[in-house]
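Porphobilinogen deaminase
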Amino acid sequence: MDRLRIATRKSPLALWQSEHVAAALRARHPGLDVELIPLSTRGDEVLDRSLAAIGGKGLFLKELEIAMQAGHADCAVHSLKDVPMALEPGFALPAILARADHADGFVSNTFDGIDALPVGARVGTSSLRRQAQLRARRPDLQLVDLRGNVNTRLAKLDAGDYDAIVLACAGLQRLGLETRIRARLDAPDWLPAPAQGAIAIECRDDAPGLHTLLATLDDAPTRRCVEAERAMNRALHGSCHVPVAAYAWLDGERLRLEGLVGSAQDGRAVRAGGESSHAEGDALGARVASLLLEAGAGAFLPG
Ligand SMILES: NCc1[nH]cc(CCC(=O)O)c1CC(=O)O
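Predicted structure tokens:
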């Protein structure tokens, strides 16, 4: 293989992540000609409705998968947190890169953190997971929808539409915007989306040579953690329709997982945690999901 075409979304963050993967592949495989193929997806184009209303996270992948199926691209680069728990049949994730910052960040031009917000302050986020955790801490806040790419969201904050917004630290850092983070919202107090901060590479599952090439970028410790988080989400039938948060980390010989399911309406939430050996992340995710359901998570999950 001497040429590799990477399908990517066109947002500045998506382009940064794909360029990052391209650079890592060029460094590891000198002589490999790596090229980006920027494509527009429905998830990027439809900004006036919530993601849940137009069909969920898969909308960010579909056009890239069509390009791979048609032979116009060899692989695609995604934020793993935007990848549905069940991949489309015929596709695989040969590489999950070493995780960057997992945390959410509190971003405001006026206030130093959630506790410093005045009563009734307007906070912008369309994420049910972020809404549920904000409500749990501060039932008085006005939560306002905010979609669009990272730069668009920051521009709306700067225009005065919101007192604060919540964004992933990893995205801000990748775009050189880390000075916008006024406070970190760290695990386990505040939990991120399953797999937040991890970049994944997707390709067709019928190309072993390609799979092997891409797998050179896989980070085993990250894969163990995000598999536990995604297994928990999968067992809860999680999607962007439900406020599910999870964070797993390695602690010596043990893999630890902390999960949360909550209500974006009233701030009620249940939490559960557990631990296993490194190799048992799937079972750990399923077990923590069961604990969440025993604690009443079903009340916050659809149907
Ligand atoms: N939902 C959009 C999205 N998908 C991935 C990231 C951040 C990067 C990452 O998690 O790796 C973001 C932006 C955000 O949530 O602020």
